[in-house]
From TrEMBL, chains A, B:
PROSITE patterns: HTH_LACI_1 (PS00356), HTH_LACI_2 (PS50932). GO terms for molecular function: DNA binding. It comes from Nesterenkonia flava. This is LacI family DNA-binding transcriptional regulator. Keywords: DNA-binding, Transcription, Transcription regulation. CDD domains: HTH_LacI. Residues 4-58 form the HTH lacI-type domain. Transmembrane segments: none annotated. Pfam families: LacI (PF00356), Peripla_BP_3 (PF13377).
Amino acid sequence: MAMAQVRDVAALAGVSPATVSNALNHPHRVSARTLAKVQAAIEELGYVRNDAARQLRAGSNPAVGMIVLDAANPYFTDVAHGAEQHLAELGRPLLLGNSAQREEQELTYLRLFDEQRVAGVLIAPVGDVLPKLRTLKDHGTSVVIIDRKAGADEFSSVSVNDEQGGWLVADHLIDQGARRIAVIGGPGSLRQVRHRLHGTQQRADRTDGATVEFLDTGAMDTASGRETVQRLLERPRDEWPEAIFATNDLVALGALQVLARAGVEVPGEIMLAGYDDIEFAASATIPITSVRQPSEEMGRQAAELLRQAIEDPAAAVQHTVFQPELMVRESTSAH
Amino acid sequence: MAMAQVRDVAALAGVSPATVSNALNHPHRVSARTLAKVQAAIEELGYVRNDAARQLRAGSNPAVGMIVLDAANPYFTDVAHGAEQHLAELGRPLLLGNSAQREEQELTYLRLFDEQRVAGVLIAPVGDVLPKLRTLKDHGTSVVIIDRKAGADEFSSVSVNDEQGGWLVADHLIDQGARRIAVIGGPGSLRQVRHRLHGTQQRADRTDGATVEFLDTGAMDTASGRETVQRLLERPRDEWPEAIFATNDLVALGALQVLARAGVEVPGEIMLAGYDDIEFAASATIPITSVRQPSEEMGRQAAELLRQAIEDPAAAVQHTVFQPELMVRESTSAH
DNA sequence: TCGACCGAGTGAATCGTTCCAACTAGTGAG
DNA sequence: CTCACTAGTTGGAACGATTCACTCGGTCGA
């Protein structure tokens, strides 16, 4: 309760508050003797500086806020981890927020970060947040967009070529003999989902008889994958697709659970592919073919672009686009 | 850059700054007419209040900080999710920090939260943080410990009976015919690891010939699990354990990968059990027997205890202990 | 009619830190 | 001996929102 302040430290050390501040923030301006005295006083009183006062005076907060689509998705924890590492090197704490694919949550966190006057924001957007991001920029907060090249001329971004990812999967599935492909994922409003679907469609269009059907799961988690595939299996047997492409691995794992429970052979009766190549895809009941994205590297690069934007807000925006890689496993290729 | 302040809003609305503040924080003190004028002015200027100034004046930060052992572990993301939900209902933002089982990181976050004067801290501790937690408490920050009943008379806590969890696993393994049991996990300094091991040992002591061996993996992730089991398999075949009990599911999944690659039959040659019952344990190549903990519920309860501690710092500390439940799957029981 | 009372609004002080300009004492060049 | 200069230190003014004690009309009960 009785929190020590600079003036208490100053009194104990026999110097002025200004000197204590200098000792803390510009040690070279202070003689070795006083520095030692001040440090001893800080130690004795257990002084911890008040960040609010510090920020108020400084006018800005060194921290960076990050908003991910789904904190339970290993892909995003990897991205966050990459970002956190790089930011830690820059001495910037990372505040992590989870939008859980809900626009309302997303806006809540954006407002929070705005009120906190954070130096920058990393965001994988759900809804249409461009207006809010512009506001942030007006307020002097730099923004880097992850996983989506939106507002391309306004904000730097880090993304993966999702169309190509979709193409790679479709190419492989068709090569393995599949013609009727069901793409499952959602909500359909998510850029990632649309792009992966689009890439799939484009590849299918080049092969006679190849068709693509999209089933919106509503969300990108295991439960949604289960429900959707459950409904799919209720169709007459001859209307089943030959392959299911889940737009992320959580959905794919949910799909696999249902297929296994229903006794459907994978890949014999239905092939299954996922996206993100999270660690658990490879160690699933039947290892799942998936599209690898360099998640940690993406986080690190996002943090790096943010660093540049913070240092020079007027600099040109940059877009880093990573290339996806197909990891073929049992779920699509009988051995 | 040109950030609007209360006084700008006040000027535009034709009232005093004090009134704007009242309109924002105590709307009932202000007439409907002025409230409307103020809101219009806020809208027009895009005013966002400065949290630092607000906190400085208020003397405290409504937010709550949380430090988890491993943000990549679904168990912890579930706990965090439960806590976040409950805190959101209380109007408190959650700042999430990841100690990644490193004491240094842990202390960094604790210092950050202390400087921010957060209202409370939820922590799953790695190192010996009791002194630092006492400091926080002195500074008026309430603390609730997760997953460990330490400093039992000083801080409220939420935990699971880890000894019993260990016992349950050992009981089942012995029942299935195993005698030589290897417990893998680490670092050994982690309370959870020690307790689970202890429970295992206690159960083994009651059966003739049952032995328990502990192998420290150094960390609780998949890679560490792989390495440790790799080394284990290098022993002469007749020195292999009959069962491996991994102290969390990530380690178990790593173990399973190595066993599969080496062509070791599970559970035929070696049985395998994990802990936490994360979703991926059930959908692994060979579904893994695991100990379920009510993760989301634990997070929610931790947040609730914290709420109580914040409201009445002098109140008696409380400990909620949940009971673990064994989920038997293929990895320990041939069908 | 008078005073008590009430709702609405305000001026000024305040939170704890940092920064700027100013000051002091000591040093060394001319 | 004087003056310019430096290293070290300091008083006091910010930063932006909130709050407290207070004012000002107006209403109501006696």
